[in-house]
User: What shape does this take?
Amino acid sequence: MKPERVLSVRSIVLGSLLLLVVAIASAWALLSFYGGGTATDSARLDAIRTTANIVLGTGGAAALLLAARRQRSTEQTLEHQREVAAATDRDNIERRITELYTKAAEQLGSDKAPVRLAGAYALERLGQNNPDQRELVMSILCAYLRMPFESSPETREEAEVRLAVFSIIGRHVSNRNSNESEKFWPGQVLDLQGARLLALNWMDAELRILNIDHATFDKGLSLRRCKLNILSASGCTFNGPFLISETEIEMMAFFDDADFNWTTAASIRDTRLPDTTELSGNFRVPPDLYGSSMKDSPDGAFRDAPDGWRLHQDQDRDSRWYFVSESN
Assistant: This one.
């Protein structure tokens, strides 16, 4: 912004003196030339008075213009000051966020479990207070869970930290009720490829993408009343119950090459699945898909589906097609 030129005190004083001189000279001239009192002198004085009024009016307009100019200059200065203050605030906020990230990252890398736990909760607070940072916070927490881990008595503390980290993630992808709506972080993408997890047990979760390819779940997986655009679970190992119920998957679902190492049937019940669903894993017993349906192709079938399934049209349920086990 180009700064406005400010009138100096000297200029104001000289202008005042010039006006005084003009006033004195005008009074002398009027008295000398039109002070006779004749009708002609009176007419000429009226004309001069009218001209003087016009000049005064013009001078008033000029004064108003100068006042407006001064006001505009003041407003521009204030606006510039506000912009500088806002930029300073943004810099301070970004610096504070960077410092918080740095400190939390250092805590997550600590060799002491309580310090790592404190780092995870610090990241949660950062995401809760700064919505534009939530995606990055989730990425960091998922990256922590993707780090190699072998469960053993010696790693019990680390298991507790990982359980807390996973609880933080679950707390913010669930849109369970209005009382906790402020805790819900919508539109998240979770990348847990290859992670070693105790269990995944979510209700009312809403996600854009859940990628758990080649992950291992020591105590299984449960998704209930969830909404996902994409669920990718290729090559997963489930050493516990596998249950998906009352869930809607909009775009893609992959369960191919998964190992279901559990004595009971894997269960996907009352779930809407996209046409791209692939479920060709290693099952101990045929999976239970009662009440689940393909989204757009009622007479279609899963690609690379394992043996033991059949399509069933239930006349009592809007004549829709459902997958059921051959054993039913």
